[in-house]
Design brief:
The structure is a homodimer. Chain A is an alpha+beta fold. Helices cover about 45% and strands about 25% of the residues of chain A. Chain A has a 4-stranded antiparallel sheet, with helices on one face. The radius of gyration of chain A is 20 Å and the shape is globular. Chains A, B: This is EthD family reductase.
């Protein structure tokens, strides 16, 4: 009886651990993915509400992308890495997608809704970089 | 005897799976880390050798950072995400570190060596953004 309980416990733990591990593996492999980075330049008088961006804007856009979206990240600009130079960007939001054409097809019909949300968190026009993850 | 063998096998599998999972966890948790992004702007006549950057320059800089470095990434600019706008950056190299002051302390004494390597892969001066991973 005791042995059966131990066996069952170990089996469940193994399954759980292996399952969790697999989830992490898929999150780690980024090489070859396409990054779409939406970069908000800093300038005098420009503002950016990170909280709104994180809780409302990015989840909305992510929702348009479906299974093409592998993950998305948000970073908040802190400083320029070069002394006496201004902060280059206040914030950057990045979508890691498998296919650029699928990304464009998903964003196209929703572009107006996305742009209409800009004034809710910023008064600056973003720069967008499409790049490929090399490493 | 058979039960003991099964028990031992399951125990080893569990330990291995849990151990592997922990390794992946540390690679995935980025929130709160500091990103130092070295961004190479695109302009007419500017060049960038991704292969040299990936195989020589970035490993050299990474070597200066020690255990403060969690990971580093390289991306190659492909296009602007906005029609009729020029490519914003040819490439971006990013260091994910635990401490900005430790990063600065490690880079300081090696700044000349790092800059002396620039002409080996590019003729443009990078912009550097220090940011905090929000999500």
């Amino acid at each position: 009886m005791k042995v059966k309980v131990i066996l069952t416990f170990l089996l469940l733990t193994t399954c759980f651990a292996v399952f969790s591990q697999e989830k992490h593996n898929t999150a780690v492999v980024e090489k070859g993915l396409i990054k779409v980075s939406v970069m908000y330049p800093y300038a005098e008088g420009k503002t950016f509400n990170v909280e709104y961006y994180e809780t409302k804007h990015m989840p909305m856009v992510a929702g348009f992308l479906g299974s093409n979206l592998v993950k998305y990240t948000i970073e908040k600009g802190v400083a320029s890495g070069i002394p006496n130079q201004p902060l280059p960007f206040m914030a950057i939001g990045t979508f890691y997608v498998k296919s650029l054409s699928d990304y464009q097809a998903a964003i196209g019909p929703n572009r107006d809704a996305i742009r209409a949300d800009f004034p809710n968190y910023t008064n600056v026009t973003p720069v967008i970089l499409v790049s490929e993850v090399v490493k």
